[in-house]
Write the structure tokens for this entry.
Amino acid sequence: MFHRIKALAKKEIKQLLRDKRMLFVIFFFPVFLLVVFGYAVNFDVKNIKLAVYDKNHSAESRDFINTFTSSKYFNIVKYLNSDSEINDVLDTKKAQLIVIVPHDFSEKLYTVKDKPNVQFLIDGVDGNTAMIINNYIEAAVNYYNQNFQTEFLSRTGAKVSMPVDFRPTFWYNPDLDTTKFLIPGLIAMILIITAAMTVSLSLVREKEKGTIEQINVSSIKIIELLVGKAFPYLIIALINAGFILIAGNLMFNVTVKGSLILLLFSTLIFLSSAVSLGIFISVIADTQQIAFSVATFITLLPSMLLSGFVFPINNMPYIIQLITNLTPVKFFIIVLRAIILKGVGLETFWPQIVYLCLFTTIFLILAYVVQRKKELSA
Amino acid sequence: MKTILHFIKKEFLQFRRDPKMFGIILIAPVFQLILLGYAANFDVKTVHTAVLDFSKSEMSRKYIEAYKSTGYFSVDYYVSTYEEMTELIDKGKVLAGIIIDRNFEKDIYSGKPAQVQAIFDASDGNSSSIAAGYAVGVTKLFSQNVSTEFMQIKGKVITPVNSVNAETRVWYNPELKTRVFMIPGIVALLLMVVTLILTSLAIVKEKEIGTLEQLIVTPIKPYQMILGKLIPFAILGFLSVIIVLTAMNVIFSIPVKGSVVFLFVSTFIYLLTTLGLGLFVSTISKTQQQAMMLAIFVIMMPMIFLSGFTFPIENMPKAIQLITYIIPLRYFMVIIRGVILKGIGIADLWPELLILLVMGVSILSFSTLRFRKKLD
């Protein structure tokens, strides 16, 4: 059995080595994309484009606006002079935020009955960014209020103190660098696409060309065929994973806090699940085009949007949460974040590893069953 | 003209013979839209929380109540040691851990700042900073209540100090729903995927099967052949546009605020670029395998990551921002979001539309030229 698998694997590797362009695509692009996308993926909101409409023109209003400009988060892009400009500035995305200081700002600030109302208009099209901008505004206004009150009270000789001293700390990623938690997702996504796609295409190709019939009449069993053909791609994907991790380390300082051996071991298990998915696709598809479309629809967008890579799974509706279990990327991201960012061991993520093994087995069995059925009906 | 019509007929006949493919192209995008549309959500609704209360006083219980009453924090665990807390966070069972100091109540009564430490798991997305924002809000409100209560008890006169009131209004998306923002983007992505799957294999498939040579010996001209290949795909792509946009409207009740006609016209121009790119891949590839790998790595993935779909372009480094200018989806993202969410039209969006048009026409003619050279 093993020498037949070995022979098949050898044939596959020879075929692959002949297609230089394909080799280039398989080895170069995953690393290249990681490098480019690694710089592109972040949710850090900096340099918010701010338009100021100061109707008050007083020392106080300038002081208030200074609170914003002195932080690195806001950039004043425009000063408005009339109400008619407000719509245009937001519609054309010239500014993400408009501050409107009322004409009675300085007056009301010193009369206790009435608070000055400063209006903030946020471009809410991107809900996530708008939410973060909103947080920044609150912090800036708070800061201004505290300074103003302390100054005011110190003139009267009173003291202000906050009853509760609240100290948040952020574990595993203290600078809240969003790139850090996004890179593991990017790695998982690139790996599953490479592995599932190459495997499914190489198998369907033989079907389409008719060479699979030659193999069928030989003494090779289906399972040997599947394993023999998939094995070289598993190795390629593993080498790719190594390159990607090295690139991640060099370019983005993603240092592995946990054990490297554990990382290698779990990557291998994840890749097996990706390969078994590829085998399954190749069994249900008759042409390369169908294999390609099925693989694209199953791996490309779901690996990104249903895996917890971009959107937290906790916030999804319950039914969608159940469906997310169909993408192995979900489990690998948990494992990667655990090993790379948290530096914890198998005791925290063994359920994910077990699940990935189960996933692999189920899809291999499914592939086997479908293939048998097809052969019997043929 | 007649030749092209015959060619189109041939292509449609081929489609009919391959019903699986037809089904995938028309049904899969709707499925995906539903799944991904519901999944695309940054809104943090539930923060799983563990509490380590060393104080165990009335005041600390009040403080914990303040968290619960927001509706955001779900206190799932009360632990008694720091180690238990660490384990819960390591395992990812909770997002936030709140540690209340032993002297919490005493400090508050004696006017000293009472210590509260909060730990957030920042390895899983933006949720941690949003949750921290909620926690700061809870603490601020609690502090204010405690201060006023005390002052009243002690009979002190509160020195009236004014403060600025921030009146925030969010435009275009007042409920701050991520979904409303993401779904038009998903629509644009699905259209790209569908058209690329079709066109990237269009010519290379005939090449691999060997039927391309048969076509070459017929009197059909290269541009006629390209048009004959493209028009059916454009029709299918447009069918897909109608289905997906209707699904968006019906399922997620996101209405198109701007002009529907303008949306369709600009979607058509966007399809020119994706069809052109697919065709380009098809002409430069030798095998279907190569074409597919190129389509996914060189076109689809950059379109997803560099178009501003989930990651705002303004946040990217300058060099990467330069690359985004060659991504057609970048322009279409602005158009589709602008028309659907803001209700703006050609008056504001003509630069994007013009760039898309120029891109589409040049990619298409470039691919046709390349194709002609191959024939010689």
